[in-house]
Amino acid sequence: MSVDTDTSETEIEAVDRLASKLGEAIADLPEHEDFREAKAAVEADEEVQEHIATFERKREAFQRAKQRGEASELDRRELEDAHQDLQSLPVMEEYLQAQSALERRLGRVDAEISAELAVDFGEKAGGCCQH
Questions:
Q1: Angle at 62 between CA 58 and CA 67, to 5 degrees
Q2: In terms of C-beta density within 10 A (0-12 exposed, 13-18 middle, 19 or more buried), how is residue 45 classed?
Q3: pLDDT tens per residue across span 18-48
Q4: How many angstroms separate the CA atoms of 68 and 62, rounded?
Q5: How many CA atoms lie within 13 A of 102 on its CB side?
């Protein structure tokens, strides 16, 4: 069986071009724009950044205590409280909503790609050894 490499390269180039166009189209989606704006707002908000830093410190301390076998229920509750405090900030709530909307939209894109490939693209195409 003969393989026409020019045709294969053209097909590969076409797929690469379409993938680039898909990326551009996704970047232009209102859900992506909302996410970028919400992310920028989180990054610019000093109060949110302080809550993130506090949560990260508590999370790291909890992980270290857990590894030593010293993590208590109180430690876990303090970590959960810090997480709840962070997520309850209005700017963070907007960010999480925008993130969720973008993930739902990308899930629909994944479903369309997967339907054409007869494989769950997002689940299976990422690696050869997933079980």
A1: 155
A2: middle
A3: 999 999 999 999 999 999 999 999 999 999 9
A4: 10
A5: 20
CA distance 36 to 49: 17
CATH number for the domain running over 30-118: 1.20.1500
Residue with tokens 């899930």: 107
pLDDT tens digits for range 44-85: 999 999 999 999 999 999 999 999 999 999 999 999 999 999
Look up tokens 């909890």; give the residue. 62
* 3-state DSSP assignment of residue 14: helix
Show me where the domains of the chain are located: 30-118
Neighbours of 38 (CB within 10 A): 21
Phi, psi angles (nearest 5°) of residue 126: -75, -20
Length of the chain: 131
> Taking the mean position of all CA atoms in its chain, how far away is CA 83?
18
